[in-house]
Design brief:
The complex is a heterodimer of chains A (405) and B (230). With 405 residues, chain A is an alpha+beta fold. Chain A is built from 14 helices and twelve strands. In chain B, the strands form two sheets. Chain B has a six-stranded mixed sheet, with helices on both faces. In chain B, strands 2-1-4-5 form a four-stranded antiparallel sheet. The chains are: A alpha+beta (405), B alpha/beta (230). The complex binds adenosine-5'-triphosphate and magnesium ion (MG).
Chain lengths: 405, 230
């Protein structure tokens, strides 16, 4: 079509102007692609810290446990649920937990703690438990009266591996739970607040201590792909098929973390709107200039009987050809930097904390939306903004245009 | 060749309003033009030549009065009807910047035929034939910037003629050419008028050029001062 011919060749004829227009489109695309890739990468890294290495992506509880946790809200037939989880291939790993509160003392010092009963083998497979232990050892056996305590807790108790620790808590039958444990290791989760109240004991020992034989509070599940959490949660619920025992996604059980995250994501959209605006201004400027300069060309086209709609098309096609070229080049550049940063990342001078965790090394991610969203932004802002000059050109009065010398 | 009236204007008036100031560019022109004429519109600067040509081509609309081309009242036409009428009936040649700079000579000439959906084969044949007539054979793939001013105007004339319009309107087609090129161009137009019978109306300032016209309409202050056929 002749309109495409004119549009395409005009881009190369007005080289300087095209380069100016292209620079704002390319810059806008590249910046947004980089920005989305980097923030998605960082967010997923943070989410993974919270979920994969800690809470799990999905958790199963008694249906009211999350609203109001209680020693008595337990899961009984968990062996059954294990089998169901094993049949879902997207599930990476799962691990049972028991929670309670208590008071511990080492020598003269004592403090309140959160008691967590874990299955040493499963916990390590699911959330890299062993990696959290920075001093001492892992549990020697799943029935041993051994305890691993958080870094901050060790400091409060002035305790170190080898020391004896006495726990006082309450059993589910109303009895007083009281036992002595040997500290074997110190753990560091990345969350300093947590580490001040955390202690882990083997889950079988916890069941005995708290008289919860055959019962647990939670199953934490990690899955292969973070973005499939909602579907897999639903699938698990279908398999369990009960309204007493339910699976929930991390967005539900780490609600305040999730909300903080959402607020940050909104910040990203604000940034994208700003970029869109910059692209729009850049494009408007140069396209308007070009339209004014080519007034006679439009005058001739109209005198010969070209329809106004075709002139609008001409200008929009021109802008969009340029946009597509910029998107192609921008994709290559953004792919390059996002790939580099997905491997090497950026190390910050000062670590920043998020939900009590400290992050210093951030990496990018290569995903479809970091290309699709910027492409839509560039095409949309260029087209919307190009529409006004296009309308102006379409309204060119040939009688007037051909008069001005 | 049968002589029939192709244009008739009656009491044609055009008043421009510019920030409250009124400029009476054309103040009542009634005349007829018959097919095959070779007519020059002359007069001092500001006498209304361009305005008059724009009114009879439908590029501009009159304040009052009427224009008929081939018995159709174009002064009443609007929008798409008018632009289609222009496309099919009038070939334009402007003083300068006639050609689309990014299109080749051939593409410039075939543009109107594209709008008229003429098949590709026929378009090409007609382009080759008309280029021969304006003495530019072999130049179909050049860009306008690779042509002299006179050659560009010839392309413009070829483009104006290629779809066999009712008439060719040329507003000072030679104004940007030196006198040698200008008179060559006019000579060519005259030959084309004689061999094809196509109607030409052009405006000019140039004494030498107006001498070649067979009909000379002189405007002054927006009215016809003299109208002589020689
Ligand atoms: N758009 C306009 N607004 C106001 N006045 C105009 C406009 N166009 C033309 N005029 C006025 O109308 C009158 C006739 O102008 P026109 O261009 O038709 O003259 P011309 O004979 O073609 O002159 P030239 O030989 O300089 O081309 C002039 O006085 C001019 O200033
Ligand atoms: Mg004029």
């Amino acid at each position: 079509m002749i309109i495409f011919k004119i549009a395409f060749r005009s881009i190369f004829r007005q080289k300087r102007r095209s380069i100016l227009t292209a620079l704002s489109m390319f810059g806008g695309f590249f910046l947004s692609a980089f920005f989305i890739g980097f923030s998605d990468g960082s967010y997923n890294q943070i989410i993974n810290m919270f979920t994969r290495n800690n809470l799990g992506h999905i958790q199963i509880h008694e249906s009211t446990y999350l609203d109001k946790p209680s020693l008595y809200k337990t899961i009984r037939d968990y062996e059954d649920i294990y089998k169901k989880l094993q049949s879902i291939k997207e599930v990476d790993a799962f691990t049972p937990r028991i929670y309670s509160a208590g008071i511990v003392s080492v020598g003269e010092k004592s403090t309140g703690v959160k008691i967590t009963g874990v299955d040493p083998k499963r916990e390590n497979i699911a959330t890299n438990f062993n990696k959290k232990i920075y001093e001492g050892d892992v549990f020697s056996d799943e029935n041993s009266y051994e305890v691993i305590i958080g870094k901050g807790l060790a400091k409060i108790l002035k305790a170190s591996p080898g020391d004896d620790l006495v726990v006082i808590s309450q059993g589910a039958d109303g009895s007083i739970a009281n036992d002595s444990f040997k500290i074997v290791g110190l753990s560091k989760s990345g969350n300093e607040l947590e580490d001040r109240i955390t202690m882990y004991i083997p889950i079988k020992v916890a069941q005995e201590l708290l008289t919860l034989q055959g019962r647990i509070h939670e199953i934490a599940i990690t899955i292969k792909k973070l973005n499939t959490v909602p579907e897999i949660t639903e699938l698990i619920n279908e398999k369990i098929g009960s309204d007493k025992i339910i699976a929930e996604p991390w967005q539900a059980f780490a609600k305040s973390f999730y909300n903080a995250m959402q607020a940050d994501v909104e910040g990203m959209w604000v940034m994208l709107v700003i970029i869109m605006f910059v692209v729009a201004v850049g494009v408007l400027n140069t396209v308007l200039m070009s339209v004014l300069e080519r007034r006679r060309e439009y005058g001739v086209l109209k005198a010969m009987g070209t329809k106004p709609g075709d002139i609008i098309k001409l200008i929009l096609v021109e802008i969009n050809i340029l946009a597509v070229i910029c998107i192609a080049l921008g994709s290559i550049a953004a792919l390059g930097i996002n790939y580099y940063l997905s491997i090497h990342g950026i190390t910050l001078a000062e670590p920043f904390s998020y939900g009590g965790m400290y992050f210093r090394h951030m990496t990018s991610e290569i995903n479809l939306r970091s290309f699709v969203i910027p492409a839509v932004i560039v095409i949309l802002s260029a087209t919307v903004v190009g529409f006004f000059p296009a309308l102006k050109a379409a309204k060119t009065d040939p009688a007037k245009a051909m008069r001005t010398h | 060749m049968e002589q029939k009236t192709i244009i008739s204007t009656e009491n044609l008036v055009k008043t421009y309003k510019d920030n409250g100031m009124e400029a009476k560019a054309v103040r009542g022109i009634s005349l007829e033009i018959t097919s095959g004429e070779f007519t020059a519109v002359v007069g001092p600067s500001g006498s209304g030549k361009t305005t008059f040509l724009n009114l009879i081509s439908g590029l501009d609309t009159p304040t009052s009065g009427t224009v008929q081309i081939n018995n159709r009242l174009i002064s009443e036409m609007k929008g798409r009807e008018l632009s289609d009428f222009r496309r099919d009936n009038i070939g334009f040649v402007f003083q300068s910047y006639n050609l689309i700079p990014v299109l080749t000579v051939e593409e410039n000439i075939e543009y109107i035929m594209l709008l008229q959906n003429v098949p590709k084969r026929e378009r090409h044949d007609r382009v080759i034939k008309i280029l021969d007539k304006v003495g530019l054979n072999g130049m179909e793939s050049r860009r306008p910037t690779q042509l002299s001013g006179g050659q560009q105007q010839r392309v413009a004339i070829a483009r104006a003629m290629v779809s066999n319009p009712t008439l060719i309107l040329a507003d000072e087609p030679t104004a940007n050419l030196d006198s040698k090129m200008g008179s060559e161009l006019l000579e060519m137009m005259k030959v084309l008028n004689e061999t094809t019978g196509m109607t030409f109306i052009f405006s000019t300032h140039d004494q030498m050029i107006m001498e070649r016209a067979r009909r000379l309409i002189t405007l002054k202050d927006g009215i016809v001062k003299t109208d002589e056929i020689r």
